[in-house]
Amino acid sequence: MRPSLWIILPDSPTTRRAVDSYAVPHVRRVLTGLLCLLSAAAWAGPAPQADPDNAQQVQRGKHIYQRFCALCHGVDLQGQPNWRQRKADGKLPAPPHDASGHTWHHPDAMLFGIIKQGLVPPYAPPDYATDMPAWGDTLRDTDIWAVLAYIKSRWSAETRKMQQELANEAATQALP
Ligand code: HEC
């Protein structure tokens, strides 16, 4: 069937031939192109995430980490000494981000939230006193995902798997 083209083109043997030989395949090509574009747009949509296997993202994250995070969390992600003990001011030192800390106990989405918003509810009690800054005004979302990708790239495959399992458990518990 040759659909809507007949509405705009006069029906004569010439136009019929023209439509057969050119317009219909052409329209098809245009439509196929549009469909490809649409599906490409749909693919561009998924939420950004931290991919420790994406070398480019990890490299970017490493730069950002060294510039903004290493000061407290350590150039080698080792954290501050005695990080489990509160300091004289009652605040906790910066924990390591390697497997010896507890960063991997949390799902990516929560870590993203902590980095972007700081340790405020729902990540910490209201008015929680902490030295961890909120980075939402300094870093773009893609920077934060990149830092996370770098941190995760420093975990063993086993630690990454455990984080995923804990995240899955947390997701199940969150269901009504
Ligand atoms: C001025 C020091 C400081 C800087 C700079 C800093 N942090 Fe922190 N961060 C802390 C402290 C202190 C804590 C622990 C806070 C607490 O529990 O009270 C913390 C906690 C965290 C946590 C939670 C860890 C967990 O296991 O619960 C994450 C994630 C984190 N920081 C990521 C980052 C990232 C990413 C950067 C760089 C963009 C950064 N931090 C820069 C001091 C800092």
Short description:
The chain has about 180 residues and is mostly helical. The radius of gyration is 26 Å and the shape is globular. It contains 7 helices and no strands.
List the helices and strands and how they pair.
Layout: H1 5-8, H2 13-44, H3 55-68, H4 70-73, H5 108-117, H6 141-153, H7 157-174
Bound molecules: heme C.
Heme C (HEC) binds next to helix 4 and helix 5.
Explain this structure.
By secondary structure, the protein is an all-alpha fold. It has 2 domains: 5-44; 55-174, Cytochrome c-like domain (Cytochrome Bc1 Complex, Chain D, domain 2). The protein contains 7 helices and no strands. It is globular, with a radius of gyration of 26 Å. The model is unreliable at 1-9 (pLDDT under 50). Heme C binds at residues 68-69, 71-73, 91-95, 101-103, 111, 114-115, 119, 130-133, 135, 147. Heme C (HEC) is lined by residues 68-69, 71-73, 91-95, 101-103, 111, 114-115, 119, 130-133, 135, 147.
Strand fraction equals under 5%
**Amount of helix:** 40-55%
What's the CATH class label of the largest domain?
Mainly Alpha
How many domains, as an integer?
A: 2
Structural class: mainly alpha
Number of helices: 7
Shape: globular
The biggest sheet amounts to:
none
Distance between the termini: 51 Å
Quote the average pLDDT.
Answer: 84
What pattern of helices and strands is seen along the backbone? HHHHHHH
